[in-house]
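FIELD: query
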Amino acid sequence: MTRSAAFGLLLLLAACQRAAEPPAEDASEEDSRGQVQRYVFGTTQGEELSAESMRGRVTALVFVTTFDLASQLAARQLNQALRTHVPRINAGAVVLEAPKYAPLADVFRTSLQLAYPVAIADIQMLAQNSTFGEVRSVPTLIILDAQGREARRHYGAFTSEELDGWLTSAR
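FIELD: result
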């Protein structure tokens, strides 16, 4: 299977998942700026993905798993936004798997050629770092404004156009 055929399959699967989801009427889907979010996650490269390291720009964080095709598509779309969005943004991914699977998270980062940090956190770590509350599905995209306040939360697949609009409105 060629790369373009595989990517087309990913897009089709994400679209099917998106079509199966009911329209979001959840308040968490809306612009809900509140307090500044504080977070620290260890990356697969031994660094930190934190509020401090992301300060000053709109930041998009995507919560994913390595084995989920919609997560892979979301990670790629975020990678493209990081490279092309004006003004520049920050981006990061948090792989929701046990720390013993950190090598898989690193393979996820390198195989998708992600230009942003990839951290790993299991459910217990996420509960201890409860800044983001419940992350109930993957992918979950959280956009923070330049001050670090949550501006948008989206559960499930999304299009590049939606992502661009959300990033623009978070300024």
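FIELD: remark
Residues 3-31 have pLDDT under 50 and may be disordered.
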